[in-house]
């Protein structure tokens, strides 16, 4: 099993990255929080990997911190939460926000996430609240937003729109949501979060 990849960023889009490891390109699916912290093309990158092997696919999911991968693995243990929904959850909320929502049983915050209805949110709270107590607050102290340089010519609004589409929103909805964000100094991740708050109203 692949547990970690260390190489260079060969290509990236809001929902995935290709990591070049000694000439071999590994396509890795990402939550938006990880994408926002990726370095520029050809820069070195290290990702902690969760691998899923199926008859028809060999899928890799990447995280910049080991704690994020652990949280993702806890999420997909919950009935009805697969890797795709797990990525959507970790794209809509950073790890600290997610842990806080679970700790305080914030059902409303969880149901704002695309693809998470009330029953699924309730199941998340029941299944995860006690389980995650065992690794707080040590991991929480290390769960800070990733930092990294985006491409110099990257358009945060275009990237944010693409990310919302990747989460399942229609292109027209994504465009409208990003346009409604008034702040002009937000990065890609900030725009996504602001747009998601607007869409949840």
TrEMBL record:
A Gene Ontology molecular-function term? four-way junction DNA binding
InterPro entries (UniProt xref): DNA_helicase_Holl-junc_RuvA_I (IPR013849), Hlx-hairpin-Hlx_DNA-bd_motif (IPR003583), NA-bd_OB-fold (IPR012340), RuvA (IPR000085), RuvA_2-like (IPR010994), RuvA_C (IPR011114), RuvA_C_sf (IPR036267)
> One biological process GO term for this chain?
DNA repair
Question: Which positions fall inside the Helix-hairpin-helix DNA-binding motif class domain?
Answer: 73-92, 108-127
Q: Which UniProt keywords apply?
A: ATP-binding, Cytoplasm, DNA damage, DNA recombination, DNA repair, DNA-binding, Helicase, Hydrolase, Nucleotide-binding
Instruction: Provide the residue span(s) of the region labelled Domain III.
Output: 154-201
Any Pfam family = HHH_5
Q: Does the keyword Nucleotide-binding apply?
A: yes
Q: Does the keyword Nucleotide-binding apply?
A: yes
Where does the record place it? Cytoplasm
GO CC aspect terms: cytoplasm; Holliday junction helicase complex; Holliday junction resolvase complex
Ranges where the record places region Domain I: 1-64
Name the major location: cytoplasm
Q: Which HAMAP family match?
A: DNA_HJ_migration_RuvA
Provide the domain comment: Has three domains with a flexible linker between the domains II and III and assumes an 'L' shape. Domain III is highly mobile and contacts RuvB.
What is the stated purpose of this protein?
Answer: The RuvA-RuvB-RuvC complex processes Holliday junction (HJ) DNA during genetic recombination and DNA repair, while the RuvA-RuvB complex plays an important role in the rescue of blocked DNA replication forks via replication fork reversal (RFR). RuvA specifically binds to HJ cruciform DNA, conferring on it an open structure. The RuvB hexamer acts as an ATP-dependent pump, pulling dsDNA into and through the RuvAB complex. HJ branch migration allows RuvC to scan DNA until it finds its consensus sequence, where it cleaves and resolves the cruciform DNA.
NCBIfam families attached here?
ruvA
Q: How does it assemble?
A: Homotetramer. Forms an RuvA(8)-RuvB(12)-Holliday junction (HJ) complex. HJ DNA is sandwiched between 2 RuvA tetramers; dsDNA enters through RuvA and exits via RuvB. An RuvB hexamer assembles on each DNA strand where it exits the tetramer. Each RuvB hexamer is contacted by two RuvA subunits (via domain III) on 2 adjacent RuvB subunits; this complex drives branch migration. In the full resolvosome a probable DNA-RuvA(4)-RuvB(12)-RuvC(2) complex forms which resolves the HJ.
Name the family: Belongs to the RuvA family.
Name the record gives this protein: Holliday junction branch migration complex subunit RuvA
Which organism's genome codes for this protein?
Marinospirillum alkaliphilum DSM 21637
């Amino acid at each position: 099993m692949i547990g970690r990849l260390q190489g260079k960023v060969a290509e990236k889009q809001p929902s995935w990255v290709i990591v070049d490891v000694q000439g071999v390109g590994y396509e890795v699916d990402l939550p938006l929080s990880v994408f926002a912290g990726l370095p520029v093309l050809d820069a070195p990158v290290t990702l902690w990997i969760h691998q899923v092997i199926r008859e028809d696919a060999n899928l890799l999911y990447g995280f910049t911190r080991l704690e994020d991968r652990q949280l993702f693995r806890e999420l997909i243990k919950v009935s009805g939460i697969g890797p795709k929904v797990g990525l959507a959850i970790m794209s809509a909320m950073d790890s600290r926000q997610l842990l806080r929502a679970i700790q305080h049983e914030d059902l409303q915050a969880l149901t704002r996430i695309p693809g998470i209805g009330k029953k699924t949110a309730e199941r998340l709270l029941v299944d995860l609240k006690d389980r995650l107590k065992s690794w707080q607050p040590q991991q929480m102290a290390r769960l800070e937003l990733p930092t990294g340089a985006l491409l110099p010519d990257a358009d945060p609004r275009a990237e944010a729109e693409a990310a919302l589409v990747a989460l399942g929103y229609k292109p027209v909805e994504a465009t409208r949501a990003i346009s409604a964000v008034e702040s002009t100094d937000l990065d890609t991740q900030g725009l996504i979060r602001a747009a998601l708050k607007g869409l949840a109203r």
